[in-house]
Amino acid sequence: MKILADEHIPKVLLHALRQARHEVITVIELGMAGATDEEILQRARAENALILTEDKDFGRLLEFCPPSQRHRALLLRYETFTPTILIADVSRALSELENLGAQTFMAVLMEGRLRIRTWSD
Predict the structure, then answer these.
(1) Separation in Å, CA 62 to CA 9, 13, 56, 58, 117
(2) Residue 69: partners with Cβ closer than 8 Å, 6 or more residues away
(3) Structure confidence by residue, pLDDT tens digits, 16-34
(4) Whole-number pLDDT of residue 100
(5) What are phi and psi of 114, to 5 degrees?
(6) Stretch 70-79: mean pLDDT
(7) Is residue 116 predicted with pLDDT exceeding 90?
(8) Which residues contact 67 (CB under 8 A, 6 or more apart)?
(9) Is the entire prediction scored with pTM above 0.90?
């Protein structure tokens, strides 16, 4: 799966996702540090990449943007985590989300629980 990781995603998770053969690019690698959520959304759509973020604002952005502008995002909501648990949880979530194909969604991963909100355009 192609993933666009927002600025504050833990490096240990990025490394594990790359080891698992996911194509991971970060906003920092793209020179987009400090970019607005709208700019990140546009780039993710252009790259056809899932947005991986800890920023709750993406939920509101995807909910209220025009249907033609929606995309796919996974929001991580962990107060504390151990790398092993986070990597395992995200890996399981990505496996489940891959089954949605090109459908637009906002998924929230919290302490091993995955909630998915899909939209039919």
Answers:
(1) 20, 24, 11, 6, 10
(2) 41, 45
(3) 999 999 999 999 999 999 9
(4) 86
(5) -115, 125
(6) 90
(7) yes
(8) 104, 119, 121
(9) yes
Round to whole Å and give the CA distance between 46 and 12. 26
Q: Which domains does the chain have, with CATH numbers?
A: 2-119 (3.40.50)
For residue 51, CA distances in Å to 5, 79, 103 come to: 6, 20, 14
Give the type of residue at 70.
Answer: R
Residue with tokens 């991963």: 109
pLDDT digits 0-9 by tens, 46-69: 999 999 999 988 888 888 878 778
Please give the single-letter amino acid code of residue 82.
T
